[in-house]
Amino acid sequence: MRASSIGGMETHNFVRALQHVAGSLQPSRLMRAQATSQAAQRESAEEERPAPAGAAGSASCVPGKKPYISAKWRKRTAVAGIGVASGLAIGLAIGLTIGQTLTCPTGSNYVGSANRIGTAPALRGSLGCVDTAAISYRQTLSSTIAGTSTGTTTVNIYGPFEAGFSSAQPGVSCLGTQSVVGGIDTYTAELMIRNMCNVNSISLLDTCGDHANPRHFHEMLTNCLSGQVASGHSTRLGTSGDNRGIYGFFEANNTYPVLDVCGAHVGVTPDSNGQPVVHYHSQVYPPFFVGCYTNADATMTPTQCRALFAGCSSAAYSITTAYGSGTYQRDCPCWDPTTRSNVPGATGTPGYWPTSLRLPPPPPSTG
Ligand SMILES: [Zn+2]
Ligand SMILES: [Zn+2]
Q1: Which residues are CB-contacts of 315 (< 8 A; sequence separation ≥ 6)?
Q2: Residue 85's CB: how many other CB atoms inside 10 A?
Q3: Structural domain for 290, as ranges
Q4: What is the pTM assigned to this prediction?
């Protein structure tokens, strides 16, 4: 597939293809490096690894890993009188495993579970799935919006974080002895790599916002999954693990919703029969689709979110891009909706991002 199509790829797609091929050739090296740098995070989530070409479905080379349940969550649920010793047992007791990657079906819509409301999604796996109508919509769009790769049937929606990058992945050999550690969102990691390599054309995602094998979304870059209804609200693009809908960028014509830390709010959607419902919206900043499975009324606070993830208790990590420097908490998907930082006490937009805010792509002309 790749050998025959690389010649026609845009530069950034070419880079991605090489990275994934490289990942498939050297899994043990990647795993060793990541095992060293991510010991704490490995306890917390499904691992995201490039899989061999054609091996769709083999998302993990660390089978049987335990899902992450934070100490605070275990303590809280124990205090609440649920009466079991571990969060894992709690998850099993309610019929699912908290923090585990979802299995997204093809040809039908994913159905989530309300038992996940208020819990932590997978950090290196699917936390939502693209609906069939959105896949069909994507396939009506031009390649400049939908992308040109084989990924126009992508169903997996991952969280914001990547597992890390090094020069072992061709296409970013310019990293030399430098590397990007795991647990950093795709937008920030891309800015870091561009700065390390001094190459602004490097992109970690294809045109639409998906990549890799098994193919998955981290961001939606071009409105490739969502149109708009007459009111301007974006159409539904997918279903989250907690069975809430995920929509595009827009709440109304040229306006954006006010969202909680998870990326959700309460409102009427194109498919809610006029009733206000909790739902998620895509954003151009992380968490991009879903940061956490929000609570019953979409009022999750950064503090509440942070209690769900071990990464939010880790030491702040220093990040530098061409725009400047700032601190970051790896594998902590709890960005304050006001400051856009995932570090408590931050006073403004992180210094490693451009000062002129990134804007969502223009609304789709049809839908
Ligand atoms: Zn990825
Ligand atoms: Zn909305």
Answers
A1: none
A2: 10
A3: 38-52+61-164+216-328
A4: 0.77
Residue 238 CA to ligand 2 center (angstroms) comes to: 13
Count of structural domains within the chain: 1
Residues listed for the chain: 367
259 CA to centre of ligand 2 in angstroms: 9
Q: How far is the CA of 215 from the centre of ligand 1 (A)?
A: 8
Give the number of other Cβ atoms within 10 Å of residue 99's Cβ: 29
Does any domain span residue 289?
A: yes
Instruction: Tell me the CA–centroid distance for residue 203 and ligand 1, in Å.
Output: 12
Look at residue 210 and tell me if it is in a domain: no
| pLDDT tens-digit profile, the chain (367 residues) | 333 322 233 333 333 433 333 332 232 333 333 333 333 333 333 333 333 222 222 232 222 333 344 444 444 433 333 333 344 444 555 567 789 999 999 999 999 999 999 999 999 999 999 999 999 999 999 999 999 765 689 999 999 999 999 998 767 889 999 999 999 999 999 999 999 999 999 999 999 999 988 999 999 999 999 999 999 999 999 999 999 999 999 999 989 999 999 999 999 999 999 999 999 999 999 999 999 999 999 999 999 999 999 999 999 999 999 999 999 999 999 999 999 999 999 988 899 999 888 888 988 875 4
Residue position matching structure tokens 């999604």: 121
Q: Is residue 17 domain-resident?
A: no
Note whether residue 21 is domain-resident: no
C-alpha radius of gyration, the chain, whole number: 19
Closest CA to 363 of 266, 230, 211, 210: 230
